[in-house]
Amino acid sequence: MRSNFLFLDTIINKVDAKGRVSLPSDYRAIVKETSSEIVCYRSLTSPCIEGCLEDLLDKLATEIETSTDFFSQTQDDLTNLIFGDAKRFPFDSTGRIGLTEKLLKHANITDTAVFVGKGRKFQIWNPENWEKEEARIRAEVLKNRPVLRPTLKEENK
Amino acid sequence: MRSNFLFLDTIINKVDAKGRVSLPSDYRAIVKETSSEIVCYRSLTSPCIEGCLEDLLDKLATEIETSTDFFSQTQDDLTNLIFGDAKRFPFDSTGRIGLTEKLLKHANITDTAVFVGKGRKFQIWNPENWEKEEARIRAEVLKNRPVLRPTLKEENK
DNA sequence: TTGCATCCCATGAAATCCCATGTTATACCA
DNA sequence: TGGTATAACATGGGATTTCATGGGATGCAA
To answer: Which residues, in sequence order, are CB contacts of B126 under 8 Å at separation 6+?
Structure first.
């Protein structure tokens, strides 16, 4: 038995005229294993759709409920924004979910969607936007973490 | 459950037309013992594939989940990069995994792959590239740690 | 009725499984 | 110790299943 799960990988799927997309099969397996459901909402920070298991939002709600952190007001606000925007997306017998106009528009998705794993969450992007975003992140991470390559010291010039 | 295991040794295996490679049997034993699964992704710093147990990523996800800045930008970037690139690779009844085009291309692997143990992780290289990389590393180590020299025999002078 | 969302079936492509075979490593016995 | 028998492993190819995706049918609400 596994209590853990991870949304991984990057998967490109078609969006048909009805707004339907196949949820990647790995993601479906997680939903089944956990007996939970997929929840999606507009990302607060990026032009993409964000998704997770309903369980995760439940944990968030509990944290807020029991939090004694005086300075977490901002986080509470942000979280509440998400709750207001989030919606359950069950998938049909062929494994597809029907994304709404609101979500598709926010992410600028028309006929192709990119699912990007984020561990306990995932995101859905427009292909071109994701390409740019990935390039940005790679550059950013490499810049900020030269430490990743400690064996390349140039001490003897 | 044991948390101690090591990916060791250097093993050369064939990659067939379908992208299938035998996972070294020692590695398979580790997967079975830990009841985990192999996860692979493109190395951030080298032209090679990197692999580890899913447990390792799961720990990372838990750390992020329980950290206080749920909405941190840097964290978002990192999770996208790591979880978005990583993919589970279960092996079939004959012990093979099917590497993807994306990974093979990144590592420049066509028909032969070299598995290199790295302890908690391992890497998969194109044979020629690994040969160069190993030479580079050895040279680097000797240069930066002259103390090692006295123990080296002078047999290839 | 009309528009919209869900459900069901069909199809092609891709990933996975299974069996067969040669090779290498290990165990066993003289 | 050497030599052979046995088991483990790597690898090729074909069969099978899963998956993504298009299209039509069905049900519900305005």
So the answer is: B47, B48, B107, B108, B109, B110, B112, B113, B114
CA-to-C1' span, A111 to C4 (A): 19
8 A C-beta contact, residue B19 and residue B104 = yes
CA distances A150 to A115, B124, B147, Å, are: 33, 20, 19
Is the shortest CB-to-strand distance from B104 to strand D under 7 Å?
A: no
Closest-CA residue of B relative to A7 is B83
Strand partners, B97: B21
Task: Give the C-alpha separation, B25 to B13, whole Å.
Answer: 11
Asked if residues A79 and B43 have their Cβ atoms less than 8 Å apart, the reply is: no
In this prediction, residues B91-115 reach a mean pLDDT of 96
Phi, psi for residue A98 in degrees, rounded to 5: -105, 100
Which of A32-46, B39-53, B62-76, B83-97 is least confident? B62-76
Question: Does residue A155 surpass a pLDDT of 80?
Answer: no
Tokens of A113: 């969607």
Average pLDDT over residues A140-151: 60
Instruction: Please say whether the beta carbons of A23 and A38 come within 8 A.
Output: yes
What value does the mean pLDDT take over residues B83-109?
Answer: 96
pTM above 0.85, yes or no: yes
Terminal alpha carbon distance of chain A: 55
What pLDDT sits at residue A157? 32
* Best to test chain B binding among A5, A6, A64 (most B CBs inside 10 Å): A6
Residue A34: exposure state from Cβ atoms within 10 A (0-12, 13-18, ≥19): middle
List CB-based contacts (under 7 A) with strand C.
Answer: A 18-20, 90, 92-94, 98, 100; B 18, 90, 92-94, 98, 100
Report the distance from CA of residue B77 to the C1' of nucleotide D9 in Å, as an integer: 41
Give the pLDDT of residue B20. 97
Whether residue A119 and residue B39 make contact (CB cut-off 8 A), yes or no, is no
